[in-house]
Amino acid sequence: MKLILIGLSLTLLLIFGGVFLVSKTNNKASLAGGQNTQVSVDKTSYDWGEIGINDGKVQAEFTLTNAGAASLQLANVSTSCECTTAQIVIEGKASPYFGMHQKSSWTGQVEPGKSAKLIVEFDPAFHGPQGIGQITRQAVVETNDSKQRQLTFVTTANVIK
Asked: Matching Pfam families, A to Z (predicted)?
């Protein structure tokens, strides 16, 4: 009877351990560094100023330009808080919305001389009445530019009643 219980316990441990490992599998896109890729951004920060908690979502837009001679790849977009999402638009085609804990194998490609838009959206009501005051949120985009593998965009606001 003891042997059966030990065997059953080990089997359950292996099953739950396997499920845990599979759920932690990294689903991030892999970008190889490009020798002739160069990303240029118009700005890396945006301040919404004062925004009302019940005034609805606000957006900031950033431009990422391929200043290199080879295709620029953008991937692994994430944000620093669940109240914030980010999306990339390349030649009118929009990526999915990305958030804080999302993993995606999505990769966007920007041809030389072309640009992409990063749209960052913040919901001031997400945290409820406790969300009043100064906020700082980030959106991160990975690139295949070997000199700028990761771009960080910072948004700020003062959320008021």
From this structure: DUF1573
